[in-house]
From TrEMBL:
Protein name, entry field: Non-haem dioxygenase N-terminal domain-containing protein
Cofactor: Fe cation
Any coiled-coil regions, as ranges: none
GO molecular function, one term: oxidoreductase activity
InterPro entries per UniProt: DIOX_N, IPNS-like_FE2OG_OXY, IPNS-like_sf, Plant_2OG-oxidoreductases
Keyword Iron applies: yes
Domain spans labelled Non-haem dioxygenase N-terminal: 22-127
Keywords in alphabetical order: Iron, Metal-binding, Oxidoreductase
Ranges where the Isopenicillin N synthase-like Fe(2+) 2OG dioxygenase domain occurs: 172-205
Superkingdom as given in the UniProt entry: Eukaryota
Native organism taxonomy: Eukaryota, Viridiplantae, Streptophyta, Embryophyta, Tracheophyta
């Protein structure tokens, strides 16, 4: 529990690195302009800012406020969610950072997992502070819509069908196998495991 009681304020803060201005993608622009801006940003930095995205400012402020309130809760209220087990979908954990002089500081992070639609997923989220589940659910739905729109534009820019990334990614071809000099797609099958014989069995067969 020592990590829960620690914060960056008790350590010397690291000097901020040089700032860089990220490309800005303005969603109300024309379809072609937005698509081109996303592709250009991906080629240059891999990061970009999205403005005029349609997420209400009050939803963003509510999300910020409820997160700040969560991290101000007494330790005993948040302790049940603390875990070092990365397999846990919903957990509070501490991220550490080192600078070149060897100084170390950490900050606490809260990860919340969700299905879509959210449904019963939110029942596994913290119930404190009051309203956290409702605020996070609203923010998730709004930002997911923006994310899917960006993916559709990116898909078009890459020459793919706009809905290429829609739906469950686990149900589309992703694995390829080298067969007779060609790479061929492995057709997915629901509720089945893919078994790879691997190099060791190939060598044993030889």
């Amino acid at each position: 529990m020592a990590k829960l009681l620690s914060s960056a304020s008790s350590h010397e803060l690291l000097a901020p690195p040089p700032a860089v201005s990220l490309p800005v993608v303005d969603l109300p622009l024309s379809h072609d302009e937005v698509r081109r801006a996303i592709l250009d940003a991906g080629k240059e930095l891999g990061f970009f800012l999205v403005v005029n995205h349609g997420v209400p400012e009050h939803a963003m402020r509510d999300m910020e406020a409820v997160c700040e309130e969560f991290f101000r809760l007494p330790v005993l209220d948040v302790a049940p969610f603390y875990s070092d087990d990365r397999r846990k979908l919903n957990r509070l954990f501490s991220g550490t950072t080192f600078n070149t002089s060897g100084d170390k500081y950490w900050l606490d992070c809260l990860r919340l997992a969700s299905t879509f639609p959210v449904g019963d997923s939110k029942n596994h989220w913290p119930d404190k502070p009051q309203g956290l589940r409702e605020v996070v659910e609203t923010f998730f739905l709004l930002t997911r819509g923006v994310g899917m729109e960006l993916l559709r534009l990116l898909s078009e820019g890459m020459g793919l069908h706009p809905d290429y990334f829609d739906g469950a990614l686990s149900c589309v071809p992703g694995l390829q196998v080298s067969y007779k000099g060609d790479w061929i797609n492995v057709e997915p099958m629901p509720n089945a495991f893919v078994v790879n014989f691997g190099l060791q069995l190939e060598l044993m067969h030889q």
